[in-house]
Amino acid sequence: MWGAGFKWMFLIIGTTIGAGYASGRELWQFFGHESGLAILLFTIFFTVSCYVIMDVSYRRQSSDYLPVLRDIVGPKLTKVYDIMIFLYLFTTTVVMIAGSGATGQAFQFSYWWGVVLITIGLIALFLKDINGLLAMNQIVLPLLLGGLVYILLLFIIDQELDVFSHWHEQRNWTAAFPFTALNILPLIAVLGAIGNKVKSKREIHIAAIGSGFLLGTISFIYNSSLIQIADELLLYEIPLFAILKHYPFEILILMSALLWFAIFTTAAAGILGIATRLQSIWNIPIWMLAAVLIAVMIPLTTLGFSTLISYIYPIYGILNLYVLSRLLLYPLWGGKQNKEA
């Protein structure tokens, strides 16, 4: 039971910690100065949202996100958000594939070698259906989280930083709402696909509380570290590199590899959400759907990582505020709706 709970917890974290989060760009875009309370609120909102999504998915025994989405936003808006989820997952996966190409260039390889590497990896991952993704998350994510926390704590200790020095300044607390909302759609898509695999409520408790606590803690440490070097961040497209410049080249290589895996897990979660939705229409093996989707995405990979984070993410964050409010209020109205149904 505990093992299954951790399995779903890593699926949630793998869906959320993409290249935007792991690189620090997404955190700095929304938080920054005076955001301690915002991160605390995000932790609470995120935990509640994950619990509600998993609970609905478990009760519906869903294998794709549509029944869960219908339960959360209602039948009238289901089609609108169905399209939004599809487009969100599609665009972010395109950018993750492009990010893999850019990572290859950083190591003096051709852009297309990076694209080919992630393409082969994604198709191979889904040869074992969803189990391949779950197995990979349980191996890769502890390494990614451990490496990130190690570097951040090392930086805080070396620079003798006081992470609570700005605790009395909390004017940016409203950032918790769009930041949490931003991450809601991919979670509905991915967690909606595993409802028929969850065996008990205990698994849901472990996954929701564990993922919320871990992401909240790491977000606070990461954001506090970035605040200390705020003046330098304009020089770096990837804020994490402003921290890594203080350390040997070997650590830069290691963290760059872990960033690539963050890109990979996000792309895999996006493919899972889209493919399971399409499987409800066409009964085709998931690896075959993955191959077709990636073939369509590759020509679009010239869109650009920074553009998506800077413009599209905040827009989605605002549009998703309705979904977030429905999730947070679901314990109040959900039971009544279920009885009427």
UniProtKB/TrEMBL annotation:
Membrane-spanning intervals of the chain: 38-58, 79-98, 110-127, 139-157, 177-194, 206-229, 249-274, 286-305, 311-329
Native organism: Lentibacillus juripiscarius
Domain of life: Bacteria
Keywords, sorted A to Z: Membrane, Transmembrane, Transmembrane helix
Protein name per Swiss-Prot or TrEMBL: Membrane protein YkvI
PANTHER family: CONSERVED MEMBRANE PROTEIN, MEMBRANE PROTEIN
Keyword Membrane among record annotations: yes
